[in-house]
Amino acid sequence: MDINNNTVNKDLQHLALSQHVKIDMGKTYCIISCSKHRLSDMVSTVDALQEKHWQIVPGLTSDDGLVLQGMSKLQTISKNTDNKKKGV
User: Fold this and answer.
1) CA distance 56 to 70
2) What pLDDT digit, counting tens, does each position of 8-17 carry?
3) Start-to-end Cα distance in the chain
4) Contact yes or no for 27/9 (Cβ under 8 A)
């Protein structure tokens, strides 16, 4: 597994994914790619990222023997944050 991080995301550096899957990752978007012969490794990687609050972006594609899938980071809202305006 290759992770190319332009930004540091410590949660994802600790995932033991697959050596056959490449992840190009930013803060809120990543592209996962692997050989069409290693799709089971890609499925496991996508499952692992979903457990870390990543969501699949519609549109699986392939090019030159590689399968590519985009994923987007889900925004988590703190339970302590209340967006309602409070009176005095």
Assistant:
1) 6
2) 455 544 345 7
3) 54
4) yes
